[in-house]
Amino acid sequence: MQELGSKLRGYSWMSHSNGILNLHSLIARSRNELYLFQFVSVSRGFLVLHAEVAHLKPAVAALERVHVAL
Predict the structure, then answer these.
(1) Whole-prediction pTM
(2) What are the tens digits of pLDDT across the range 23-43?
(3) Cys-Cys crosslink for 40: which of 14, 23, 26, 28, Cβ 3.0 to 4.6 Å?
């Protein structure tokens, strides 16, 4: 994992809806405008990791999404 610097902010929380337990984690560093949002959901016996990484720059925006089912 890349060094994210000293201005890193992280938030985690859990939610439950329709029999699905979700673990959410949000990591944001505003100086370099790097945002990572990820959550783990458990549904029908499957553990699913969802991750979205957004690199926002003044003129360019790119969004990567990764969905991995274990």
Answers:
(1) 0.26
(2) 555 555 554 555 555 556 565
(3) 23
